[in-house]
Amino acid sequence: QLQLVESGGGLVQPGGSLRVSCAASGFTLGYYTIAWFRQAPGKEREGLACISINGGSTNYAESVKGRFTISRDNAKNTVYLQMNSLKPEDTAIYYCAATVKYYVCPGYVSTLYNYWGQGTQVTVSS
Question: How far, in Å, CA of 102 to CA of 50, rounded?
Answer without folding.
Answer: 11
